[in-house]
Design brief:
81 residues, alpha+beta, Jelly Rolls, two-stranded parallel sheet, 2 strands, 7% strand
Length: 81
Amino acid sequence: MKIKSISKAVLLLALLTSTSFAAGKNVNVEFSKGHSSAQYSGEIKGYDYDTYTFYAKKGQKVHVSISNEGADTYLFGARNR
């Protein structure tokens, strides 16, 4: 009985600490008045991730440049707003 409790506590601690390391920042991409582009930079380490949120109209394009070949980039789209 005591071993089960200890096992549960260790598992819970492992889950809590592993998810806390996979944190990142959330950035709302904004364009300065009169500008049609924006540039953001940063550094991601380990299992961290950053989320950049933006809205585009039909025909607009997005360009993403990442300097690490081992990094993955995902683009999720939402339907009409």
